[in-house]
Specification:
The chain is of the alpha+beta class and 252 residues long. 25% of the residues lie in helices and 31% in strands. The chain is globular.
Length: 252
């Protein structure tokens, strides 16, 4: 573990404790932990409502923050399993079946990354920077569903976006939203005709470095099967740090 990664990892444990209404030490246990969900001040703001169930692991025990109505099932189900096993499909499927009784279902697992090393951008594309309200002009553009939010959100506002340009054409955009105080989640979109040219790695590296220079914390998330996105994270100096999943109401 590099000094850089350890510094960010220690901050992550503190943030996850706020998000999941537990202690930082709970994530370092070999056993699993079930706690009651809460709307703690300073949490990452993805919803204004308490989660019915969220799970996270940093590779040891899993912390499950959930509504008390499902605690009895969770205690029995999780006590004999290793933390990482709860993120395997067969166990997620069993949890999903139980959640359905309450009108909820699991979303996809989110594989999350933190910085572990400095990276110098290798490309030299022309770029434009946008901050805060300057980003709002792009909300109607469906090309940037990963780089920025779908609309201006007071709960987790978009803070910075950087665009690579080929003349008047946008090649790609990397953006970050402030999901919790000083926690900047990076997303990236590259136009199909400009993929496999290093645009994504270049933009994410630029943005990661800018966030670091500001004294904030850059982090990156992607799906389990999105290997291209995971490789961008690795190439930009990120390292896998935690995995999480949550439940959402089932739409009729």
């Amino acid at each position: 573990m590099t000094d850089m990664f350890k510094n960010y990892f220690d901050k992550l444990l503190t943030q996850l404790a706020v998000d999941y209404n537990c202690t930082a030490e709970d994530f370092l246990k070999d056993s699993n932990t079930v706690v009651t969900a809460a709307l703690n001040e300073g949490r990452r703001l993805y919803s204004t409502k308490k989660t019915f169930l969220s799970m996270a692991t940093v590779g040891r025990g899993t912390v499950i923050s959930a509504d008390e109505s499902i605690h009895e099932f969770l205690y029995g189900f999780a006590k004999s399993k290793q933390g990482h096993q709860l993120m395997e499909h067969r166990n997620l499927a069993a949890i999903d079946r139980e959640l359905a009784k309450y009108g909820y279902g699991l979303t996809q697992t989110h594989h999350m990354f933190l910085p572990c090393r400095d990276v110098t951008p290798q490309a030299d594309y022309a770029v434009k920077w946008y901050c805060d309200e300057e980003i709002h002009q792009f909300y109607s553009d469906e090309r940037f569903e990963n780089a920025i939010c779908e609309a201006a959100l007071s709960t987790r506002p978009d803070r910075i976006a950087v665009v690579a340009c080929d003349g008047d054409n946008i090649m790609g955009m990397a953006g970050c939203s402030e999901d919790a105080p000083h926690w900047m989640q990076i997303g990236i979109d590259v136009m199909p005709e400009y993929r496999s040219k290093g645009v994504g790695t270049y933009l994410v590296t630029l943005l990661k470095n800018r966030i670091t220079e500001m004294g904030d914390i850059p982090f990156y998330g992607t799906g389990a099967g999105n290997l291209h996105s995971q490789n961008i994270a690795l190439n930009c100096g990120f390292k896998p740090a935690w995995v999480e999943i949550e439940a959402k109401p089932i739409r009729g």
